[in-house]
Every structure is written in C-alpha cells, then in structure tokens.
C-alpha cells in the first residue's frame, strides 16, 4: 500500500489550463474516485500520477518520495485504460504476464503469478484464449489482472468500465470493489458516472474546470455539497430561485418563483440578509406527495409549524406529466406556472394522472441554499 500526495498540481497545454492547483492526500490502501464531467481534468490528473504526463508545476509524492520528475517506468504504478489495450497477437496468459516479462521475472514465476491473477479476477482457465474472442467484461478482467500482476504500489484506473453495457458495468463495479478489498492496494479510479463512484469509493474527489473542489466520503459529498455545482452534479434536484424577505433568530423566510413563501429553519442566526437572492435545492427523496390537495391546501401560502417546532413547507400544484420507471414514478408538476418534479418509489407509486391536483411537502431543514456565486449558505 502507498500514500500519494498531490501538492498544487497544475497542467497547461499552451494557453489552456487542464488542471489547476490540485492538492490532496490519498491514503494508504484507499480507493479514491476522481469524479467529474468531461474536460474536468480528472484523467489528466491520473496521467500525471502515472508519469504519462509531466506537470507544469506542483509536486507528486508516493510514500514520501518525490516522483514528479520520474518517468512512468520508474514508478511502481500500473494503469488500466478505458480501451483495455490488450495485445491481440498474445494469449490471455501472455497478456497478463507481459509486465512481469519486462521486469525480467523468470518464466515459471511469471506463469504462476499470471495464473493466480486470472483466478483472482474469475478468469481461471482462459489463459490459452485469444483475447479478441473475449467479451467486453472478460477483456476488462484480463486488463485488470495484467495491471495487478506486477504488484504495483498504486493501481490507476482511467474510466475502465465505460465501454461496458449497464448490467455488466454494475456487476464489474461490485467485483472491482471486492478485488480492492482483497489486494489491499491503493486505487485511484477516474469516472464521470456518479453511481459508479458511490458504489466503489472510500472517498470521492469531485473535479470541475480543472479544480478539485471537494473530497469526502460518499455520504458527505452527497449530503453536504460544498457548492451548487456539486449539488446539481450528484443526482437530480429541483433548483428554485428565491429572495430573502425577512430574517429571524432561527429562520430565514424566502419568497420563491413558485409563488409561495417558504421557511428555512436555522440552528442560529442564518448567514443571510434581507434582499439576498438564493437558489434552493429540493431533492426528490425529501419530498412527499399528498393526493387530496384540495381538502388540505396551504392556506394563504403560509407554512405550518408542527408541535415539536419543526417546519413543514408545502406547495400545491397540478400534475403535468407522469413518467413510469418501474420501481419509481416521476411526476412533473406545475406550481403556479413553474415546473418541478417529485417522485414516488417502491409500492407507493399511486395512480396519479395528468391534471390531478397534489400537495408537495418537505421538512424545512431538508432544503439546501446557495448564493448567486454558487457557494453554500449556512443555515
């Protein structure tokens, strides 16, 4: 296992900055996922760790040793690529043993190690096969076995599952997680797929526009996003524009584009002032749907306060569209002319149809708020 430290890492291509001021400590034996959209700098960061790209500035250390100026073959790292990069003229076993051969490992030891790695990735018995005859999932397992065979300090994975179909990709995510737990090596995994990152990662590093903007455990980055970009990138949400109309010692009151005044409870004085424009985030999992809206409408658009002091915000709207997704049904709802969506899951999918009037409720404490610059508001 090895610890990796990236310090103020930058990479420029002419006038274009691909990676800017990236600093992070990657712990011994952890699986860190670098997650972000295309062009966010995650693959470039991985290639600099591998020694395949030279940083414009900054430092890379592995186990306390500065490897910034070292070439790829001088570092005890191994990389699994998106296209697998298997040699078509070699057998599966020869592919897995290739790195060992380059390191002058004796032939019999190479064979034993390669066969052991194929067993580990559930490809035992395929050693004599032509890799061109393998399925995508099998090729990915062989590429993984080849990278693990050289016993690297760090395994680097550059979107290795992106060429697989959905079901196989999900199966490989679980297998890759199990392999990581088995070999106990440091993995750095690049992906643009949020579900993949949440399935695999001990921690997730979220990148955008070349910057590493938040690092944390999956639950941390999802439940406590550092800014609006992360909130919108990690799953679906309703963004609602609003303006603070008054502030008390324990809440901020906002007038929204939905036509309702909503309450944002706070543990202390909210860090906002009257007149501040805010974007609210309402994730579908915090919303509940009440079908008999007419009988229990939100009178005068005032929000109820429960006996325990908590605040339930509510709006009334009309179902516009129903999207059936098997275990989930998504409802597009018009609230005073503004669209939002809510969902029902599991057996509680209901039988709502277009034109039905519904009430959508949520706890005020389940709302996240962001300033116009995207920064998070403390409530």
UniProtKB/TrEMBL annotation:
Residue span, ABC transporter domain = 4-234
Topological type in the membrane: Peripheral membrane protein
Catalytically driven reaction(s)? tungstate(in) + ATP + H2O = tungstate(out) + ADP + phosphate + H(+)
The molecular function GO annotations come to: ABC-type tungstate transporter activity; ATP binding; ATP hydrolysis activity
Q: Where in the cell is it found?
A: Cell membrane
Q: What class of enzyme is it?
A: translocase
**What are the protein's UniProt keywords?**
ATP-binding, Molybdenum, Nucleotide-binding, Transport
- Would the keyword Nucleotide-binding turn up in this protein's UniProt record? yes
The record ties this protein, via InterPro entries, to:
AAA+_ATPase, ABC_SmlMolc_Importer, ABC_transporter-like_ATP-bd, ABC_transporter-like_CS, Mo/tungstate-bd_C_term_dom, P-loop_NTPase, Transp-assoc_OB_typ2
Source domain of life is Archaea
Keyword ATP-binding applies: yes
PANTHER family, from UniProt?
Answer: SPERMIDINE/PUTRESCINE IMPORT ATP-BINDING PROTEIN POTA, SPERMIDINE_PUTRESCINE IMPORT ATP-BINDING PROTEIN POTA
Record's function text: Part of the ABC transporter complex WtpABC involved in molybdate/tungstate import. Responsible for energy coupling to the transport system.
What does the sequence similarity comment in the record state about its family?
Answer: Belongs to the ABC transporter superfamily. Sulfate/tungstate importer (TC 3.A.1.6) family.
- Name of the featured protein: Molybdate/tungstate import ATP-binding protein WtpC
């Amino acid at each position: 296992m090895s610890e990796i430290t990236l310090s103020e890492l930058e990479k420029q291509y002419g006038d274009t900055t691909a990676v800017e001021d990236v600093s992070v400590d990657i712990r011994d034996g952890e699986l860190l996922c670098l997650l972000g959209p295309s062009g966010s700098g995650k693959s470039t960061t991985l290639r600099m760790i591998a020694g395949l790209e030279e940083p414009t500035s900054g430092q890379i250390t592995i186990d306390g040793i500065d490897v910034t100026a070292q070439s790829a073959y001088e570092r005890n790292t191994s990389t699994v690529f998106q296209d697998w990069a298997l040699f078509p003229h070699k057998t599966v076993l020869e592919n897995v043993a290739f790195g060992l051969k380059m390191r002058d490992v004796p032939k019999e030891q190479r064979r034993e190690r390669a066969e052991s790695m194929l067993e580990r990735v559930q490809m035992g018995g395929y050693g004599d096969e032509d890799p061109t005859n393998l399925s995508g999932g099998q090729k990915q397992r062989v590429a993984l076995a080849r990278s693990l065979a050289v016993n690297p300090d760090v395994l680097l994975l550059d979107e290795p599952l992106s060429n697989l179909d959905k079901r196989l990709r999900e199966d490989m995510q679980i297998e890759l997680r199990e392999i990581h737990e088995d070999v106990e090596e440091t993995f750095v995994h690049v992906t643009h797929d949020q579900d993949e990152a949440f399935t695999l990662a001990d921690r997730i590093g979220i990148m955008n526009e070349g910057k590493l903007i938040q690092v944390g455990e999956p639950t941390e980055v999802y439940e406590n996003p550092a800014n609006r970009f992360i909130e919108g990138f990690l799953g679906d949400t309703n963004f609602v524009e609003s303006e603070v109309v008054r502030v008390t010692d324990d809440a901020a009151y906002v007038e929204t584009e939905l036509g309702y005044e909503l309450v944002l409870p706070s543990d202390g004085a909210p860090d906002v002032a009257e007149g501040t424009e805010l974007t609210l985030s309402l994730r579908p999992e915090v919303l509940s749907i009440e079908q008999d809206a007419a009988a229990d409408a939100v009178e005068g658009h005032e929000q109820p306060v429960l006996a325990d002091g908590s605040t339930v915000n509510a709006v009334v709207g009309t179902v516009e569209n129903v999207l059936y997704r098997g275990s989930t049904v998504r409802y597009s709802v018009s609230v005073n002319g503004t669209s939002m969506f809510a969902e029902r899951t599991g057996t509680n999918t209901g039988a709502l149809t277009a034109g039905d009037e519904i009430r959508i409720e949520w706890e005020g404490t389940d709302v996240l708020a962001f300033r116009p610059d995207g920064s998070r508001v403390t409530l």
